[in-house]
Amino acid sequence: MSAHRKTTRRQILQGMAVVGAASVLPSFSNRALGLESANDRPVFATIGLRNQGWTITQKSFKFADFAALADVDANVLGDNVEKVKKAQGKAPDAYKDYREILDRKDIDAVMIATPDHWHTKIAVEAMYAGKDVYCEKPLTLTIDEGKLIEKVVKETGKVFQVGTMQRTESAQRFLQAVALVNHGRIGTVKKVTCGINGMIASPVIPVAPVPEELDWDFWLGPAPKVPYRALPELREGYGGGVPLYSNAHYSFRNWHEYSGGKLTDWGAHHVDIACWALGASDTGPSKVTPVEYTLPVEYKDGHPTVDDQYNAATKFRIRVDMPNDVEMIITSEGDNGILFEGTDGRFFVNRGKIVGRPVEDLEKNPLPDGAVEEVYGGPVSENHTANFIDAMRSRKQPISDVWTHNRMLEICHLSNIAMRLGRELNWDADKREVVGDDQANSFLSRPIRKGFEINM
């Protein structure tokens, strides 16, 4: 394996390269945690480390050892190398280029937390390199990318966990919600509303010097080549230390070139639970209608006409026609969470509460024993990594598999396409294409910048 991108912390921060051989991690003092012996603990690597990348890494120390990290920002990479070293007693190897990680035979699985436009390329190449994959949500930037990932999972037999943690770590309330629906506690479901918040528009964001520590061309990767843009004001708290307004860093979610706004951010959580409860995780909608929406810039033929401001929808109300005549509303208004309404009642659930008469009635009329475990398919895992590793051992797909995730995410992608084109879309859930609308179908995929094609 070539290792010309492997670096120490000092060399990371200086932007230098060093040649060295990657080593297999020895047993650590914390190997006894979680599993019975050192040999039971898989070896992981994380690709993409800002914010959620560190979150999923630190949640996994109990179950796995980290041999390598990769990020295109030298400061982020260096900081995380130090944090992992402190946590597990040995520094992981550091790379700017994730392909160096895929070359290594000692790594069992990769955790991917890059911006969304990188997910599919890395995930597909990782599976072909023999790695199991944990990838943050939303899994894809386009619907066709989801079809490709499904094909490769089936072809390679690799285990693939999508990071929709409401199925595990925030699960108790959501599993109870699914069980309430499954056991008829609101009668026949008629409507489900997913509140996912809106976004703010941005001011004009000027072209700015690329930070010295950031490889901007590699950050863009498969996306079009554009200048780096940023305003000097820094974001506080989550995502701190980066510009509040930019076309990179935490703000990537606000640009269709790299993500899908709130529809694929919070939507990937709440629409997932809604589909799970409706039993629609392996089907899809018949129609997606943008009832009300605000795009922050002018669009022409589905594409923004300016490139210096956020372009994902800031406000929206989308109506989705689901199987069995269920109406789904996805809205930026109201409480963040999911409201289920049926012929016999309604209730609301989010990460902090589950409320409503059907929930109150549980005190006198509880769900049957094992109802929640029945929804989950067995004992509920303590976190997403534990479920992933259980699946790696059994060679069965985990609780958040690519098929159910993609079916749900198609609703979110179609909602964005409908707003960009300003019209309702009729969806063929079997063919997975828009009915009679070639222009809309052109948005099911995207051009890949030369030099960043998927290596298959």
Automatic annotation (TrEMBL):
Keywords attached to this entry: Oxidoreductase
Gene Ontology molecular function: inositol 2-dehydrogenase (NAD+) activity; nucleotide binding
Top-level taxon: Bacteria
Gene3D superfamilies per record: Dihydrodipicolinate Reductase, domain 2 (3.30.360.10), NAD(P)-binding Rossmann-like Domain (3.40.50.720)
Domain Gfo/Idh/MocA-like oxidoreductase N-terminal: 81-163
Coiled-coil region: none
Record PROSITE patterns: TAT
Residue ranges of domain Gfo/Idh/MocA-like oxidoreductase bacterial type C-terminal in the record: 206-453
InterPro entries: Gfo/Idh/MocA-like_OxRdtase_N (IPR000683), Gfo/Idh/MocA_oxidrdct_glycsds (IPR050463), Gfo/Idh/MocA_OxRdtase_bact_C (IPR043906), NAD(P)-bd_dom_sf (IPR036291), TAT_signal (IPR006311)
Enzyme class: oxidoreductase
Enzyme nomenclature, EC number: 1.1.1.18
Entries under Pfam families matching the protein: GFO_IDH_MocA (PF01408), GFO_IDH_MocA_C2 (PF19051)
Listed name of the protein: Inositol 2-dehydrogenase
Species whose genome carries this gene: Stieleria maiorica
Upper classification of the organism: Bacteria, Pseudomonadati, Planctomycetota, Planctomycetia, Pirellulales
Gene field: iolG_11
